[in-house]
Design a protein that fits this description.
The protein is α+β, with helices and mostly antiparallel strands. It has two domains: 121 residues, Phosphorylase Kinase, domain 1 (2-Layer Sandwich), CATH 3.30.200; 175 residues, Alpha-Beta Complex (Aminoglycoside 3'-phosphotransferase, Chain: A, domain 2). The protein has nine helices and eleven strands. The strands form four sheets. It has a five-stranded antiparallel β-sheet with strand order 3-4-5-7-6. Strands 1-2 form a two-stranded antiparallel ribbon. A two-stranded antiparallel sheet has the order 8-11. Strand 4 and strand 5 form a beta hairpin. It is globular, with a radius of gyration of 20 Å.
C-alpha cells in the first residue's frame, strides 16, 4: 500500500469514485478487438496509489472478459518513487506467468498514459474476495497464507526485478507522534541503522498482506497487487505479513504465521531484524498520512516482541 507525496510535502490519494474516462474505455475496447464493448464498470476498494475498476466486456463474438483496470492516479508518484511504476508491475506479471498460485495476467498496457487519462494496465480479474476469516478458521488460513509464498519465491528471473530497498531511509529518526513507548521506536531505529543480516535474494511480493490475497470458500484463489515486486530477502515478505497480522489480530497470530511458514517451507529461521525493518517503513510519519493513534498499542506490542527476539535490552 503506497501513497504519493507532492513536492510541497502534502500527501495525495487516488479518488476511487472517479470512473475511467470515455477515452480510457475506448482504449479497453480497442485492445479487445473490433466490435468489443465494455458492459459494466464497478469501482474496487482498497489500495492507496491506484484506482482499480472491475470491468465486464464482451467481444463481437460474444466472449465475455472479466478484467481489472489499474490506473496510476496518485499525482506525484514518478517524482517520489520512479520504481513504483506500471513498468515494474508489467515485469512482475511477465515473470509470474505460469506461477502455481493464480496471479493476474496482463492483457494490455498504457504505461505512459498516451491513450488513457493516466498510466494504466488492463489485467485479468481473478475469482475471490479479500479474506475475513473467523477466529476458529485462522490456523488453516495462516497455513494457506504461508504456502502461497513458496511458489512466489521460486519464480525465475528474479534478478531482473528492481532490488529490495526499504521505504524508510532512516534520515529522519522520530517515533510516531502518538507513541506510548517511544523508546521502543528509538531502539528499533538504532538497530536498523546497523548491519543488515545476510540473505539470498529471491523474487518477493514486497507488499504481502491479507488484503492482497483473494479467497473463495475458505481457499486461497490468488495474489494480487504486484506493483512493489522486488528482488530481495524472503524475510521481507514474512515480516510485512507479520506486522499486518499483529495489527489486525495480535502478536500471537503473527507468530503462528511464522510457525506456519516454517512448517510449509520445511524449515525457516526468521531474523527479527526484518520485523523491525518492516515496521520502520511506516516512518517517518507525513502530513496527511499519520499512524492512527488506535493502531499504536498493537504496533508497539509487535515491536517489543521483535526487540525481545533480537535480545535487545529493555529500556522502558
Amino acid at each position: 500500500m503506497r501513497f504519493a507525496i507532492r513536492l510541497d510535502g502534502t500527501v495525495t490519494f487516488p479518488k476511487f469514485c472517479d470512473p475511467p474516462s470515455a477515452a480510457t474505455l475506448r482504449w479497453v475496447e480497442e485492445c479487445l478487438g473490433l466490435g468489443s464493448e465494455v458492459k459494466m464498470v464497478r469501482p474496487l476498494v482498497g489500495g492507496m496509489a491506484h484506482v482499480n475498476h472491475a470491468l465486464l466486456a464482451e467481444s463481437r463474438s460474444g466472449t465475455v472478459h472479466r478484467l481489472v483496470l489499474r490506473r496510476w492516479a496518485s499525482a506525484g508518484w514518478p517524482v517520489i518513487d520512479i520504481d513504483f511504476s506500471p513498468e515494474r508491475e508489467i515485469a512482475a506479471l511477465t515473470l509470474l506467468t505460469g506461477c502455481e498460485i493464480p496471479t493476474p495476467s496482463l492483457v494490455a498496457a498504457d504505461p505512459s498514459g498516451a491513450h488513457c487519462d493516466v498510466p494504466a494496465l488492463l489485467i485479468t480479474r481473478l475469482l475471490g474476495h479479500p479474506p475475513r476469516p473467523a477466529r476458529e478458521e485462522l490456523p488453516e488460513y495462516l497455513i494457506q497464507l504461508a504456502a502461497g509464498l513458496l511458489p512466489v519465491h521460486a519464480v525465475g528471473g528474479a534478478s531482473t526485478m528492481p532490488p529490495y530497498r526499504p521505504y524508510n531511509h532512516l534520515d529522519v529518526r522520530l517515533a510516531p507522534r502518538h507513541a506510548r513507548r517511544p523508546v521502543l521506536w528509538e531502539q528499533a531505529l538504532d538497530i536498523a541503522a546497523g548491519p543488515t543480516p545476510g540473505s539470498t535474494p529471491h523474487f518477493i511480493h514486497r507488499d504481502y498482506v491479507p488484503d492482497n490475497t483473494l479467497w473463495a470458500y475458505g481457499r486461497l484463489t490468488g495474489i494480487v497487487d504486484w506493483s512493489n515486486a522486488s528482488h530481495g530477502p524472503v524475510a521481507v515478505d514474512i515480516a510485512h505479513m507479520r506486522w499486518n497480522l499483529a495489527l489486525r489480530y495480535d502478536v500471537a497470530v503473527a507468530d503462528h504465521f511464522l510457525d506456519a511458514f516454517d512448517q510449509v517451507s520445511g524449515g525457516y529461521r526468521h531474523d527479527p531484524y526484518w520485523d523491525l525493518r518492516a515496521m520502520l517503513d511506516l516512518l517517518p510519519e507525513r502530513h496527511g498520512w499519520p499512524i492512527s493513534e488506535n493502531d499504536i498499542p498493537a504496533l508497539e506490542d509487535f515491536l517489543e516482541s521483535a526487540l525481545a527476539g533480537l535480545g535487545a535490552p529493555a529500556r522502558f
